[in-house]
């Protein structure tokens, strides 16, 4: 395997080998976040965490059942991690809530965009 010096080269290498990187749009407080590398966004210092809006792609299996999801009091968003045993980079995104003691992860390829905003109150439910 050739020497891969950074994430950009890694993505280009895998795309040339036939693997597709799935780019989704990631926004944090209205600003676009670099989706070409792993990101860990935490709500440190925010009493109620984040409100996270997830829009699914039309061709994803999720879209038939749910086009959009809203997560309340999310305390961490971890974008672009790779599961053990997976060679394709930047495949998963995880959403966690220490406030509600719950969370879930999803495939980046199924998601069109994630918009992270500051939450203004504690909600009864994590997922809307």
Description:
With 128 residues, this protein is mainly beta. The chain has one domain. Helices cover 8% and strands 39% of the residues. The protein contains one helix and nine strands. The protein has one helix at 7-16; strands spanning 25-28, 31-32, 39-42, 50-56, 68-74, 76-81, 92-97, 102-107, 111-118. Strands 2-1-9-4-5 form a five-stranded mixed beta sheet, with no helix packed on it. A four-stranded antiparallel beta sheet has the order 3-6-7-8, with no helix packed on it. The longest helix is centred in the N-terminal third of the chain and has 10 residues, at 7-16. The chain is globular. Mean pLDDT is 82; it is low at 1-6 and 9-21.
**What percentage of the residues does DSSP assign to strands (E)?**
35-45%
* Uncertain runs: 1-6, 9-21
Mean pLDDT: 82
Number of domains: 1
Largest sheet, in brief, is:
5 strands, mixed
- State the distance separating the first and last CA atoms: 45 Å
Order of strands in the sheet with most strands = 2-1-9-4-5
Decide which structural class fits the backbone. Answer: mainly beta
Radius of gyration: 15 Å
Shape: globular
Total helical elements: 1
Task: Give the key terms.
128 residues, mainly beta, five-stranded mixed β-sheet, four-stranded antiparallel β-sheet
State the gist of this model.
With 128 residues, the protein is mainly beta. It has one helix at 7-16; strands at residues 25-28, 31-32, 39-42, 50-56, 68-74, 76-81, 92-97, 102-107, 111-118.
């Amino acid at each position: 395997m050739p020497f891969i010096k950074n994430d950009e080269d890694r993505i280009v290498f895998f795309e040339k080998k036939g693997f597709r990187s799935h780019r989704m749009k990631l926004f944090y407080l209205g600003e676009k976040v670099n989706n070409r590398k792993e990101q860990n966004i935490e709500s440190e210092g925010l009493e109620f965490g984040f409100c996270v809006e997830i829009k699914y792609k039309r061709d994803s299996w999720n879209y038939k059942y749910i086009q959009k999801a809203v997560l309340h009091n999310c305390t961490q968003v971890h974008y672009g991690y790779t599961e053990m045993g997976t060679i394709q980079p930047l495949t998963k995104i995880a959403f966690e809530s220490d406030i509600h003691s719950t969370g879930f992860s999803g495939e980046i390829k199924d998601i069109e965009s994630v918009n992270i905003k500051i939450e203004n109150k504690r909600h009864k439910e994590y997922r809307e």
